[in-house]
Design a protein that fits this description.
Number of strands: 8
Distance between the termini: 52 Å
Helix content: 25-40%
Order of helices and strands: HHHHHHHEHEHEEEEEHE
Shape: elongated
Amino acid sequence: MISAGDKLGGRFQSLINISYSILLPDGIYTTAEAITESYSHLMAVLRDIIGKHCISFTVNTKERFLLQSFNMMPPHGKRQHLPPLKVLSNLPDSVIDDILMRLPLRDAVRTSILSKKWRYNWCRLPQLTVDETLWQTTKDLISPKIKFTNIIYHLLALHTGPICKFILSISDRVNCPKIDNLICFLSRNGIQHLVLQLPFRGNLYKLPSSFFTCSQLRHLVLRQCLIRSSPLFKGFDRLISLELGGVTISSEFLGSLISKCPLLENLVLKHV
């Protein structure tokens, strides 16, 4: 495990900031007990993931031995006793990425405490799901709006590379400018599958103009949004699946939207 001094220094401080509710359980902890609790949780989760999916990883003989040692399921039923962190630190990046893809974002971020090799791997995940599980704790000392704002801010600051799939599912009204910034960020990072599931109550969230520049979209789900025409909209020429639920959109723009999706195969309209 990383030392306390290393943990709080440099860029890792940003990971502590995003971890208001993610990195460590139940709020902002910096105690050794909290680090140990989060570490123990992660090791249990990783053992389960590796145990279930070990056979699907593309690895050589040495790497498979490491995986089998870690989840204590080696060949011939003989247990190996390699230190868990040594096993994790010697895994190839491709396997680490595969493991992270199978974790909820909350646990993927928490892997930053395992070792230097794992510290920023989650920052390049191509698929992200942001929902209340990221900030719900048994000690809700910070309001959901503040937690959401901090998570989105640091997520945008830390993430590198393309984001192919993004799901935003929230039940409470949050800071709309932050959602605007998020969609603008996604539009510049190759988003192909976007799901926006927003609160039923209150004013509908109006999609920003940057949404209409998501030129690589292939799958789109919008719920509880206000969709208005934009001069930036030239069509989604790669979109094959569209679901609209509880949105407000004019019949004219709905017709224009559909007509400018030449590859559209699946269309679902609910309460439109």
